[in-house]
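Hi W., the pyridoxal-5'-phosphate complex you wanted:
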Amino acid sequence: MPMHYADRVTRVEPSATLAISALASELEAEGADVVDLSVGEPDFPTPENVVEAGQDAMDAGHTGYTTSNGIPELREAIADKLQADGLNYGPENVIVTPGAKQSLYEITQTLIDGADGQGPSARGTSSRAGDEVVLLDPAWVSYEAMVKLAGGSLVRVDLSPYDFRLEPALPDLENVISDSTELLIVNSPSNPTGAVYTDAALEGVRDLAVEHDVTVVADEIYGEITYDTDPTSLGSLDGMAERTVTVNGFSKAYSMTGWRLGYFAGPEELIDQAGKLHSHSVSCATNFVQHAGVEALEHTETAVDEMVDAFEQRRDLLLDLFADAGVDVPTPDGAFYMMLPVESPDTEWCEGALEDAHVATVPGSAFGAPGYARLSYAASEERLREGVERLVDAGYL
Ligand SMILES: Cc1ncc(COP(=O)(O)O)c(C=O)c1O
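Structure:
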């Protein structure tokens, strides 16, 4: 007898990037040399002292469960980092999770109610739509999936007409935010655009959030990776402390994707509610990984600076190469992504570029930005040059 699948999973689409990775793997299996500009992880090793801290913690026997919300040393180090960003938090305001993705999952499950009969947390018998969540497009693909898993309804504001800047899009945001908006997700620096939102833009968001009593998720996972700009943490703005959940993690800044370590911070009441979900689902993040996280936060300044410098040089190189090819690309100020305007439909452009030039990129439409391809410059300068050359030679630029 076929199984019955819950609405909460059947309404989520598989990741659109899967088609590209599957095709890339197929080509590689056939012996092709694919320049992979589709990856969302730094191409640097985890700093050695962090690896050693993890090994030492294992040797010291830190292999059992920890306090559900995370070891006190790590939550203290995280609170110190958040204090430095202007957020007045202590260890009691933090939950450590296996990756920032899990943080976002716990937050959406904790804050979003589903529509009757659809969401995992449908309320009573009254007829209502799922809680409304506003996304700024282009947006990282998992936000949509997580909102759908929680049964929420999505409203989207498109930043593409403004070169992905938020400030000129504030009137559009004002048009869609209302008293029925439950949550707004802001990701700066942004995946996929690399945009870093200005203080004026963030203040505009704050004004709307306060006016309509909206909770804001500030995903700052790329916050350490910025060029010539020092981004403001949204929760540090006046009036935002009680309505912001700040998300961050170790994957990007410290090149620790496979370690699975992230966290979120917010008002204690939120931590109490989300903490129930956290303890009943994952129990805790991996013990020795949390110890490595303390080392990453406290002793990696040079390693992070070197990584960010390398990303900046690669960004500049790509911008030059595209300018030489006559393509105007919005300049990203952070993260390690760039949005390349391509011929529509972008899914066909990306498939073609992979098949003909063996260059892997992700279609912008996967992020709500048709007409673009997302390029990751977590690749060496040599591979970036090779990738652009191949795109030009094959007539894709
Ligand atoms: C915007 C954004 N937030 C969160 C994450 C989750 O990162 P992790 O679960 O590895 O900490 C990612 C990873 O790609 C991301 O791009």
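Residues 40, 99-101, 140, 187, 191, 219, 221, 249, 251, 257, 262 surround pyridoxal-5'-phosphate (CB under 6 Å).

W.
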